[in-house]
Amino acid sequence: MTPQVTDHKGGVWSIAVPIPDNPLGHTLVHLLETDRGPVLIDTGWDDPDSWTTLVAGITACGFAPDELHGVLITHHHPDHHGLSGKVREASGAWIAMHAADTAVVRRTREAEPGRWLDHLTARLAAAGAPDEHLAPLREARAQGRGRTYPGQGAALPDRDIGPGELLDLPGRRVRALWTPGHTPGHVCLHLEEEHPSGRADGFGRLFSGDHLLPGITPHIGLYEDPKGPEDPKGAQDPEGPEGAGVHDPLGDYLDSLERVGKLAPAEVLPAHQHAFTDATGRVRELIAHHEERLRRLRELLREPRTPWQLAMAMEWNRPWEQLPYASRNIAVSEAEAHLRRLVKQGRAEQVPGSGPVRYQAV
Fold it and tell me: Which of 8, 88, 108, 206 is most enclosed, with most CB atoms within 10 A?
């Protein structure tokens, strides 16, 4: 197997690590050379072929896996954090992540078997999902399935990535930028060094994870927490979007985009698709996209709707009837995140009454 490896110059490489059965195709794992050895930014999905590709890619960059010094994780999703356990086992490398996402990893490990199915079923039922959609989840729970889910083999990070921190990477200047939205602890990493091409339009390079992608709008849904509502930092808020202290993932994301836009790096090295320039222009496109989507959703809410009904009426990359089962769950979570934004802005409110919660424009 010949890995797809790109030399971005200046001691920066990318390795395309495959994601099995996923339209994204691969995660771009970046390798950064430091005076203490190479450091990975993300690791890829926990799969034998993915691991083989990652090892071959590290070798193609001129290093052995046991030379890895550390791993910086942009966020906890399994296509980024999944292979961290194998990396640590092979090299003894430290693993670093923002504390908010480390907390998600810890809660996931501590959750009772099947808790994720319970969480998902309850969330979808509250959103107004029909019984025929809930039935497979209930059947899986009754049969004892759902005891594991992606990411359980990932390492528990042993270092925190603090917002604004200049990371301890000898010979390199990498500063962390906390960019919540896609996950509560997502971080981008700014390489505060002149671009190797000598470009003057912008400064440095930004490892953007899933926060900023050249042609994809990152999924912004409710922050996931398989443990439950008893954790005040979890994503399950029994009061619904009006509850005190409720997370606003879309608001977090838009605020984070503004900060990245002001940073204006010369080049962006994302975790999917390809490297690109004009980060500020891409930020403007994404902010405009979400503002237009919020406007359209408010029009849909002239008629009271449940989150499920709202998701059915929203525009996706294919008609609702053609969306796979799992994609519908993601769509509902994204609809709920937009609802929370509208409620926080005073542009929508919950309709009093029993049964699945409904919302309307105000």
Answer: 206
Predicted structure pTM score: 0.91
Percent of the residues in the chain that have a pLDDT greater than 90, as a whole number = 79
Q: Exposed (0-12), middle (13-18) or buried (19+): which is 226, by Cβ within 10 Å?
A: buried
CA-based nearest residue to 175, from 158, 192, 160: 192
- pLDDT tens-digit map of 251-292: 999 999 999 999 999 999 999 999 999 999 999 999 999 999
Contacts 24+ apart (CB under 8 A), 302-306: 302/360, 302/361, 303/360, 304/351, 304/358, 304/359, 304/360, 305/358, 305/359, 305/360, 306/127, 306/128, 306/356, 306/357, 306/358, 306/359
Long-range CB contacts (within 8 A, 24+) of 132-138: 133/325, 133/328, 136/325
pLDDT of 208 above 90: yes
